[in-house]
């Protein structure tokens, strides 16, 4: 199973436009991140828990794909 929380996403600092990277888990937990450019604190606001809902949807889709692939039979022809 793929751990979605460990995937990184890039975002621009609203103050200095410097690109920073965070893990999806940090956005989901509404962590405070320090900008590597201007050193300001950036607090993530996950409105309506959209990140949590998206992670759940991705996990559900990955489970469905896994079940579909298990149900397929592949024949090797020589």
Summed up, the domain count is 1
* Strand order in the largest sheet: 1-2
Mean pLDDT figure: 87
Major β-sheet profile:
2 strands, antiparallel
Write the element-wise H/E pattern from the N-terminal end onward. Answer: EEHEEH
Shape: elongated
Task: Round the Cα radius of gyration to an integer and report it.
Answer: 18 Å
Task: Give the number of helices.
Answer: 2
User: What is the first-to-last residue Cα distance?
Assistant: 32 Å
Could you tell me the number of beta strands?
A: 4
Question: What share of the residues does DSSP label as strand, in percent?
Answer: 15-25%
Helical content band: 25-40%
Instruction: Return the structural class.
Output: alpha+beta
Uncertain regions: pLDDT < 50 for 5+ in a row?
A: none
Give the arrangement of secondary structure elements.
Elements: E1 8-12, E2 19-23, H1 24-28, E3 32-34, E4 41-43, H2 50-71
Antiparallel strand pairs: 1-2, 3-4
